[in-house]
Every structure is written in structure tokens, then in C-alpha cells.
Amino acid sequence: MINIAIMGLGVVGSGTADLLTxxxxxxxxxxxxxxxxxxxxxxxxxxxxxYSNLLVKDVKVILQDPEVSVVAELMGGSHPAFExxxxxxxxxxSVVTSNKEVVANFGVRLMQAAAAHGVSYLFEASTGGGxxxxxxxxxxxxxxxxxxxxxxxxxxxxxxxxxxxxGGVSFxxxxxxxxxxxYAERDPSADVExxxxxxxxxxLGAVATGRLAQVDRIYTEGISAIRLxxxxxxxxxxxxxxxxxxxxxQDGSLYMMTAPFIVRHDNPLSRIDDVFNGVLxxxxxxxxxxxxxxxxGAKATASAVVADILALAAxxxxxxxxxxxxxxxxxxxxxxxxxxxxxIAMSGVDSNAIDVIFGSVEYLPTVxxxxxxxxxxxxxxxxxDNLTRLSACGGVLQSRVRLF
Amino acid sequence: MINIAIMGLGVVGSGTADLLTxxxxxxxxxxxxxxxxxxxxxxxxxxxxxYSNLLVKDVKVILQDPEVSVVAELMGGSHPAFExxxxxxxxxxSVVTSNKEVVANFGVRLMQAAAAHGVSYLFEASTGGGxxxxxxxxxxxxxxxxxxxxxxxxxxxxxxxxxxxxGGVSFxxxxxxxxxxxYAERDPSADVExxxxxxxxxxLGAVATGRLAQVDRIYTEGISAIRLxxxxxxxxxxxxxxxxxxxxxQDGSLYMMTAPFIVRHDNPLSRIDDVFNGVLxxxxxxxxxxxxxxxxGAKATASAVVADILALAAxxxxxxxxxxxxxxxxxxxxxxxxxxxxxIAMSGVDSNAIDVIFGSVEYLPTVxxxxxxxxxxxxxxxxxDNLTRLSACGGVLQSRVRLF
Lengths: 404, 404
What we know:
Oligomer: homodimer
Shape of chain A: elongated
């Protein structure tokens, strides 16, 4: 029997306790031993919880109990989650987590602490919810040079973009719907402005390369500026707009970004709708593979948390065989040099100015009073310079979305 | 450094040797040690192969060399692959394989032999080519009761069905195209008649349940009877026809089958086209997840073979923590009791007879001289009985495809 402690009896914590309870027999059979929840840490009084008898308020109870070998940190937020995780590792307990913020910000330090104390820090649930993605990327694709990762990693924004596309509603309306359905927080900025996706691509990039980039050095753009008009133009291109976290090599440089992209319907990512997530990974031998499923929610995320608990119970070590290092100055590469084609919508200019400044472009049908076009591949720097020149000619930028 | 031997320098064997050569540095960095190919077994003389200096013709050279700790059996076919695998395991060498026939037919015995000799028998490459599916199912979804697996597991038949749908060509034409492109063998029966898919669902079922069913007890139906008319009727239903390997519970009984199904476009499996494979897995906590990618080919399959080699080099044990047993009498359950809706096309009868015999059905537009309908959910036994009765009324069955 292994004894575990859960930190945080929120949505994921409750789901994890439920899974370990409901599937107890199956787990015991598969693992050859039982998984016993000894404590659940939460500062709240929760007399009506079925787990109220396991609740403790002082983390020291867990840290000082030598019977607890695995801790599931499901609190969310950076602090005190980071401090509790570090203390647990230093107390010789392995930690599993769903906390993308802590993994993205403190992953290297925590993995070093784990290694120093002969334990592991696992994080399958931090990215893609229940979708197996961290372990498959680290283990099943370990023989490949990973050349690209592009993922729909946030269900809230994907729901909003799907509703705009299929329901013809505005961003604001779709966001209100998502909030009413409980898919979006009352303060939706972390989802909508791309911060959540950014943390996740930061983690996936580290799994693929062994180097953890600084979150605030990853170019991050959300979807709040996407208009229904843009969605319609994309539709005309037989494509939809998706918020992607991306890690991609261009000319040997490793770029990382979070931004909306126009994804053509022949790409499997364009078909990932509603709250679902999908991660497309390219390796130099495997080609393209995609992982698809529910990227959030109590039950799906609990599935990933428990997978890591079972891995530890079975004696598996760290999921990434190569220890993570902090990324150097060159990762991610300077986004100004990233090259892509761009859909651009402007008012106040005509095609003459655009042709002179952007050279060969492809014009797209759009609403009256605007002119829309698709550029040739240009660097970010070049695109910005050209837009500045168009602005000097009286042009007003209405929208810009990169082509996947 | 670990020394390995490859058995069989065919498509997958060459791909594996190429990967280990091309990605040598990366692998050494990730693994912390080198993977060295010491021997390649092949009965053919291959003086022009870049690996000719590694070729041996006598399996004993490999079996008797204590330096070889891992053998990659990439020969295909049941014999002598089974005997060589058993001998390698008994000689204390772990074996990785891409050979679905051997895993599906002899998996239990080989895993027992591996356990008895303290080594492992891994088979990620046997199903889904390069797509991570065995390890994610066994490890990442280990906390779930797996309630269903439905997979497009054969690229050849999926290419044929895609060409019929998108290209409007007949089964025979699509098959000829597939043969010309090298996607189909000259004798395509193992693919086209569903045998290949059957072996793969047999393996996935064992990973999910711990019980290996007998291949010849799994209901297996191929795609050679699918007509362009049927594809068109499916299209009218906003669906496509896909050959699926399925493991599904109904009323507590576990059914397994390989058969073409009409899959509606709102299901992600319907969008897996051409030679791609996709495996949809449902778990009681994770919900639906899907794995997508290239299910065959030298490079993709090599990716999976090497993943298993690296797992062994890193000291990982068997992928399924629960040892496989032979399935009992009840697995798979009697297919006569499997319930589904059926698309049926007949000639020689009118709707009066159909209404009387099948009760409430939904009529579908089809070609002149035929009548097509979708039944209510019926068991296989009931469907067969009803078709016999319609045949007694002069009806001639033209086609029948189950609805997913």
C-alpha cells in the first residue's frame, strides 16, 4: 500500500479523490497494491465533503509523516504551491501536479530538488488535462528530434472561437456564454489573453528540448481582438481561427509563441472544436502525430494526476530522462525574425499603397470599408515596419492574424 | 552503452537502423548512454546495404552473445519470429517488436517467458505504427476503466475508403491505386479483409483489460463488399464509412469486432483520412481521447521501435503492469447479441415488407432499383433473422453497414 496526500480539495483535488475511490479495485489489481489517501490539505472547513475526515490545515502534518510517499499538489497558483512542493520534495516525497504555473515558472529548480532527494516531480496533468501528452512526448517520441509542437491548449478560448465560427456570435457574446456555462472564469484574462496557453507551450517545449524557457520571453497574444469579420474571412479561406501554443524551428532557431492562427481545414487542428484540446507534434521520424481530448475538468484532469501517482507507486522515475536546464539567451529566438504569412485587414488605404509596401499580396473578400489581404511570408519585423508605413499613408489596422 | 540486435532488415528494420544512426547524438544525450547495433539478422545477402558489415545469418550468434541485451524482432510473420523471440527471452534478452501477428497470437506466452527470465517484451510498434498508443493506454490511462476503444488501425483500407469518398472511384479502382502507390500489397487480403485490424484491436483490448482474446474469435468483416453507392448514402447522412477495430461494452458484456462502420462527421474518427490511423479511447474518468498519426511506414514505425529500445535501456519494465492472461469463454461476448443500428440496401422488396419485418426504420435516398434504410437498434441475431425473412419475400441484400 502506498500512502498519498492531496494538497487542495478544489475541482481537481475532489476529482482525484473520487477517482481513487471509485476505481479503487481496478487500480489495486493493475498496480498490485492499494493507493490510500491519508490526508487532504485545505484551509477551508468542508464539513459536508465526503473526505472531511481526511482534511488537515497544517502542511507540516503531511511533510512530517514518513508514511506519506507521494503528494499531489492540486492547489493552483504559484504560492504557496511552489513552497509546499519544494518542502515535500526535500522531505523525500515525490510530487505530482496539475499546476502549470509552478511547472512553467519553477520546473528546473523543483526537478533538481527532486533529483537531489531521490524522488520525482511529475506533471502530466499540467498540460492537456486528461490527454496523454507529457509522457508520450517524453517517452514514446524519445527517439525523434521534435521539430514542431502546435497545440490548442486552452478549452475556454477554443470554445469562444468555435462559437464565433459556428454560432456567428461576437467575441463578447461567446465569452459571456462561456462564463454562463462555467467554461470561463469571471476574470477570464489568463485564458483569453493567452497566458494559460503560454505556460503550457513552455512546458511542452521543455519536455521536447530539455530546456525550460522563461514564460515572459515567449511572445503571447490572446484572442480578444478577433472579430466576427476575421472568422468569416478565415471561413472563406476554408479555415478556422485557433489560439495555438507553438514551438517551431525556422532556419535552426527555436521560436516559441502563443497567438491566434488561421488553420486550414486540411489540418487536423482546425477540427478540434468546443472545449476540446489537441496537440500536434512533429518528429523527424514519426512525422505528425496528434493527441486529442478534454483539456480540463475535474474528471479528465484527475485521470492524468492518478496516472502519475500510479507511475510513482510502480517505481517509475522522472518522466523526462534528460534533466531540464534553464533555456539560454537563444531560446526562444527573437520573435522579430519569425516568418509567417499574415491576414491583414485595414481601413483608410487602397490596394495601391498595399501593393507598393507589402509587394505581392492576395486580396480577400471582406466587409465594406475595409480591405483584407494575405501577405507573402514576412518576418515580424518586416510586417511591423510595413504596417507602420501603411499607417503613415492613413491606413488604420483593423486586424492581423498569422496563417498557420 | 547497450548493445542491441535487429532481426530482419526489411522496411522497419532499415528504418530502425537509420533512426539509431541519424539521431545517435540526441539519443545518447537523452539516455545518458549510447545504443549500439551489434548485429542485424537476415537470411539475404545485402552487399549494398550500409549495414552489410553487421549482417549475420545465424540467430545463435545473437542468442549466445551475452553483450546483446535487447533484440528488436522486426521480421514479421508468425514463424520463425515467435521461436526466435522466445529463444531471445529465454536467453535473458528483452525483446521489442513491431510484429502484431506474434503479439496477438502468442502475447501471453511470451510475456510469461519474459517475466520468468527477468526481462521485458515490448510492442509499441505493433499497433498504430509510430502513434504513441500502447504506452499511453497502459500508463497514462491506467487509472481509468476503459469502456471503449474504436480505431482506424489500417492505413491501406483507410486510403481506399477515402479515395472512394473523395475521388468517387470504386473499391477495385481505389485498391489498384493503393497498390500502385505501394500502400497495398500485391495480395491485399490481410488488409482488405480486416485481418490486420483484427490483430491490432486484439492487442489494444489486451492492454486495456489484461485479457488477450483469441484472434479467430473476434468477428471480422473487411471492406471489399463496400460499394460506391454505400459511400454516397453515408455522405448523405453526413458521415463516412471507416473500417474500425472495436472493443466495446454493452450491458456488461465485452464485444470485440472488426467491421466497416458509418461514422458521422461530428465524430473525430470520421476525419481521419488517407493512410492515417486514429484510435479513440474512452475511459470512465478521462472521457474520450484520440491518438492520430501515421500507422505504418519505415520511419514512423521505427520511431515506436526505438521508443521501446530506449525504455529498456533506461530500465523500464513491462508496459502493462498487470500481466496478460488468456481471455476466458466470455471475451469476446457472442457477437449475435451485439446491438447496433444498420444501414441496409436491398432490391426485390418494397417498404411494406420492410416495415412489417424490421418495424420502424428510416428510409434513405439511394440508386434506382434499390431500397435503403436505417434500422432501429437491433441485435446481430435479430438483424440476420429479419434479413432471412426479407429474403423469403424475394429481397436480395445489396449491402449492410453498421452505424457507429
